[in-house]
Amino acid sequence: MKLLENSSFEAINSQLTVETGDAHIIGRIESYSCKMAGDDKHMFKQFCQEGQPHVLEALSPPQTSGLSPSRLSKSQGGEDESPLSDKCSRKTLFYLIATLNESFRPDYDFSTARSHEFSREPSLRWVVNAVNCSLQDSWTTEFIFVFLIGPVHSSSKGQ
């Protein structure tokens, strides 16, 4: 797993850092390769000793008060209705953990995280709204404009 430098993201990232009287918010968009090298290969071998990569593992229920998408699509009949019905493959879980480790190294280590510590939320829109609500008190008018509308460009080609 390796951070991929992307100059397009840097322009956006400069707009996602906000300082207010009470908070310093550092927002970033980053891209990573999923090609394993060095430490990742070693971590993946250890991870595979606990189970095969294609095996599905249960996730925790969504943080929402509603239902997860997979439960919404199920019939009312005799299918598994357990709160841990959302699943992901161990390989997907490994990529998630490896990305978290790379993103937050050296301050945090997610190597011991387990599937039940993650959940699949109903939609990207729900996640964005939850984050927005959590950060709402720290937002300045300038940040809201950039975040919701996008950076202002001097050129208005095609508009």
UniProtKB/TrEMBL annotation:
Short name of one Pfam family: Maf1
Compositionally biased region (Polar residues): 61-76
Spans annotated as Disordered: 58-85
Biological processes per GO annotation: negative regulation of transcription by RNA polymerase III
UniProt xrefs under InterPro entries: Maf1, Maf1_sf
Family to which this protein belongs: Belongs to the MAF1 family.
The name this protein goes by in its record: Repressor of RNA polymerase III transcription MAF1 homolog
